[in-house]
Amino acid sequence: MLFKKGGRVKNDPFSKKTQQFDLISENSQLSLGVLPSGHLATYYYGEKVGTVDLSYVVKEIKRASYMADTDCIKDFKLEQIPLAYPAYGNPDMRTPAVQLILADGTRITNLRYLDHRISEKQLIPGLPSCQHETAEMLTIRLVDQENKLRVSLLISVFPQHDVFTQNIQIENLGSTPITIDRCMSGSLDFLSDKYDLLTLGGAWGREAHQNRRRLVQGFQGVDSKRGASGHGQNPFIALLDQEVDENHGTIYSMNLVYSGNFLALADVDMHQNTRLQIGINPFEFSWKLDAKEIFHTPEVVMVEAQQGLNQLSARYHKFYTECLIPKNFAKKTRPILMNNWEATYFDFDKETILALAAEGKKLGMELFVLDDGWFGQRNDDTSSLGDWQPNVEKLGGTLEQLIATINQIGMAFGLWIEPEMVSPNSRLYQKHPDWIIRVTNQEPQQVRHQYVLDLSRKEVQDYLIATLTNLLTENNISYIKWDMNRNITDSGSSSLEREQQKELAHRYILGLYRVLDEITKRFPDVLLESCAGGGGRFDPGMLAYSPQIWTSDDTDAIERLEIQKGAALIYPQASMSCHVSAVPNHQVGRITTLKTRGIVAQQGNFGYEFNLLELSEKEKADIQQQITEYKTIRETMQFGEFRQLQVYDNRNEYAWLQQKNDQVIVSHVFVQAHGNTVPKRLKLSGVQPDRYYLSADDGKMISGRELMNIGLSLPVPTHDYFATRWCFTQVSDR
Known about the structure:
Layout: E1 3-4, E2 8-9, E3 14-15, E4 20-24, E5 28-34, E6 40-47, H1 56-59, E7 98-101, E8 112-120, E9 136-144, E10 149-158, E11 163-172, E12 178-190, E13 195-201, E14 209-214, E15 218-223, E16 236-241, E17 251-257, E18 262-268, E19 274-280, E20 287-289, E21 294-296, E22 299-305, H2 308-323, H3 327-330, E23 337-339, H4 341-344, H5 350-363, E24 367-370, H6 392-395, H7 399-409, E25 412-417, E26 421-422, H8 427-431, E27 451-452, H9 458-474, E28 479-482, H10 504-522, E29 527-530, H11 540-543, E30 548-550, H12 557-570, E31 576-581, H13 594-601, E32 605-609, H14 617-639, E33 641-644, E34 653-660, E35 663-670, E36 681-682, E37 692-695, E38 701-703, H15 704-709, E39 712-713, E40 722-731
Helix pairs in contact: 5-7, 9-10, 12-13
InterPro entries: Aldolase_TIM, Alpga-gal_N_sf, Alpha-glycosidase_related, GH, Glyco_hydro_27/36_CS, Glyco_hydro_36, Glyco_hydro_36_C, Glyco_hydro_36_N
GO biological process, one term: carbohydrate catabolic process
Catalytic activity: Hydrolysis of terminal, non-reducing alpha-D-galactose residues in alpha-D-galactosides, including galactose oligosaccharides, galactomannans and galactolipids
């Protein structure tokens, strides 16, 4: 422990003798050292090794270099040192973590150790951050005396979670403005390049696919320039030992608590060192920092694992559940919902909505969500965004009356809204045309017939807060689906000065967070689900306000296998919203069985999204049975330990295990069936070898050792998209 309640320091992590900081959790360790020059180095990050002098890691580095010795210290060259927060060109020529334009126009900074202090974990002004009662923060202050600049590393230890977080403060101590051009949240140097790089990428409708490739010399990474974290890449990056699989091998990872433009990179230098960084994307970013002002970066979450991808997932899942997701919902059972979007799209009336809600209730559903089309003159996607007044003609009365009727049916009520957007023909835009993001003197670009409101402006934020407050105060709404269906183009704001235009993307996200923070504090019992055309903003920043996120607009069960596998690598299964939808699927036209769709959707938060009024009696009975069975395993599926299982053919099979208390649920899907095949076996991991497990399917008892070493017999698939589930109860003995 570094900090004891009451404010008394129990154990300073800094050794004056070795000039070393040792930050240690139950199983992980981050060690930093102050070099004779005053520069701050990263000695070690990984599995706990204890408080030993690790300065030899730097002292043993001896390589030929054309760079000058730093501070005239023989053979001491910064470009060879694993630095904790590197600046550029003094004389380190590698990718910097921070780069500033100083008062005289130069860009070279010289950051040296000043002091440090220990405190409880602090919130970051204007930004989401992770919190836990056991967390402790070490603040290390670096200073550039000549340029009157101070950079602080705020490193927090979450000892029970084996997680370190870090954010950066940049302070202008001078009397004239400086400009921040680059300010990464995290930077780690590794003295090797023998790694694979793992990121999560894709596109709309196929988000979060795991992309793994060997590192090569040079710059490699992922980013977003869209004003949101994006469908294309997730703000996550990891280095893997080249032999890593689900249960073996070492991993070092970073995940950024941020929802805007980001950059995550691995840079391998000429000496086979690897620099891993993540932070706000420097592309189209700068920040004017006036005298005496402080800039705060987003927080980076750093997780390492020694036992493969499943251990990495377990640490992220536990951490985000206990330290980031709003506590009111972090471990609260989520409702089974019915969303009308794919059932009706914009074409509905009161009778249709009530009939869907009534049928959903009969089948066992608990929450009815009214999607797009309930407000203004919104009968297609060309109008009314911004005019958040209910269409009483379409709803057959007030929204309050509709909700009351649905509540009488026995369903809670949820509502779709897209607050960040405005339609050109809306009353809001006609009144406030200057409230959109646009380049002055250029015709603004429409995407999906809509503009983006300029959330960098406080008056826009205040308008959204007031509008949402009125909506939630006047109506018994239990759930909000917060959508965002276009990215930022024509980046410009009439409220910002010329030299501050590149601040817009970050100011937008700060404005968004202010609105979300205010609304979730005013209405803490309203379940917020964020969406951005699916998974276009599935990131820890949004998780800090919305306990669950719409994983993808693609609801096809087979497409969802890869999407949900990637998302579940770092995000808890209770944060993934997953629905059973119609067949043929509306996105890809595929036909899958109700059983397969159910097994896949039940991996996360479970719901339905098709026209219940068109179902046969057999289909209704099957859905009713599906829901009844799900309710017996819901706690395990939403909050149990999650593990990916190794399969025989990873191009054609997916398998996962979820367990909580004594319940173990195993799911397996064949994508394609093949002729003349014989049964294969599926070995489990994570079960207790010395316990026995009772099968709910056939009543047989089987030991954990058998499940782990011999495995379950997989049925031979009789058709494509063939899914199987096993349910076990752990017992002490036979």
